Amino acid sequence: MASEPTEQLGFIGLILQPGSSLNSTFLYFLDGAFVALFLVFIMLAFVTSGNPHIFALMFIELALWASVKWFVHELKRSREEPSTPEKKDQ
Q1: In the prediction, which pLDDT does 20 show?
Q2: Are residues 27 and 72 in contact, defined by beta-carbon separation less than 8 angstroms?
Q3: Residue 69 falls within a domain, yes or no?
Q4: Which of 1, 16, 29, 41 is a Cys-bridge partner for 58, taking CB atoms 3.0 to 4.6 Å apart?
Q5: What pTM was estimated for this model as a whole?
């Protein structure tokens, strides 16, 4: 018999499932993609003799990377905290 459908999906199927943004494999892959993009920008900065547009793109890429890391951190923190409704004083 065939195994579970989720076992056959592989990496692409894994990242398309809800809640996969907290999967450590996905986060390592995402960090690797950001590092690769940053290295490409560094090489382009040398090739273009320090074109300011490349440095602007480097800044945008680093800001995007930081915002993704912050979002994942906040998502992990929100899942760890118990969700208790606040009681209002009357």
Answers
A1: 73
A2: yes
A3: yes
A4: 41
A5: 0.71
